[in-house]
Amino acid sequence: MDAESIKGVTAGLVVLVVLDASGPAGHPELERGFAAAAHRILGDLVGRGAALGWVEPPSPDEVARLLDHVGGAVRAGDAALRVACLDGRVVGLGYWLRYARPTHRPHADLEKVAVDFAFQGHGVGRALTAALIEDARAAGIEVLTLDARGDNAHALGLYRSLGFSEYGRLRDFVAVGDRRYDKVLYMLDFRR
User: Fold this and answer.
1) What does the pLDDT look like over 81-128, one tens digit per residue?
2) Which residues make Cβ contacts (< 8 Å) with residue 102, sequence separation at least 6?
3) Structure confidence at residue 27 (pLDDT)
4) pLDDT tens digits, 121-166
5) Kind plus residue range of the DSSP H or E element containing 98
6) What is the pLDDT of residue 81?
7) CA–CA separation, 177 vs 170, rounded Å?
8) Three-class DSSP category at 100
9) Alpha-carbon gap, residue 16 to 153, rounded angstroms
10) Phi, psi of 44 (to 5 degrees)
11) Residues 56, 62, 67, 70: is their CA dihedral positive or negative?
12) Cβ-count burial of 176 within 10 angstroms (0-12 exposed, 13-18 middle, 19+ buried)?
């Protein structure tokens, strides 16, 4: 994508709720191709070294299982899934999941926000994350948490700018081959 065509990305960006508690949210054409688009984005980013929980790019089956899990949680009211589209193309996705333990039920973890490499730095991740924050607030979540790899300065800056604060850091916790990275723990407390 050239610089001219990317200028207006945020103006034409649509952030959709792909699923809600009743099922597909009015976008069956997106629903059909979503697993393949998610696999394309996640596989490419992991292949480029992104910290998304995999060391090697996930298989289509792994991504399909992940989406099935998230979809089930959304239908149960325990998650939110958002997708960013531009001209009908999926360019990003993100989701949060409510904690399963009964003592942690009022809380959720922002599990993943992933933006197509060609669209990074143009507000897509911000739009997805802001929408997910509002979904969590509307669902009655009290504290939204996340963790990020310590070398991901761009993501950490984004989260801080949206109100998250660091509450912990595990030094050299993430192992990728011989390399070690900090795991940074962030939270957004809606009780304040």
Assistant:
1) 999 888 778 999 999 999 999 989 999 999 999 999 999 998 999 999
2) none
3) 56
4) 989 999 999 999 999 999 999 999 999 999 999 999 999 999 999 9
5) strand 89-98
6) 92
7) 18
8) coil
9) 27
10) -65, -45
11) negative
12) exposed
List, in order of start, the domains of the chain with CATH numbers.
Answer: 3-142 (3.40.630.30)
Q: What's the chain's Rg over C-alpha atoms? A: 16
CA dihedral 166, 131, 97, 183 (to 10 degrees): -30
Give the C-alpha separation, 151 to 172, whole Å. Answer: 11
Question: Is the model more confident about 88 or about 170?
Answer: 170
Nearest C-alpha neighbor of 130 from the set 99, 161, 91, 97 = 161
Which DSSP helix (H) or strand (E) runs through 11?
helix 9-12
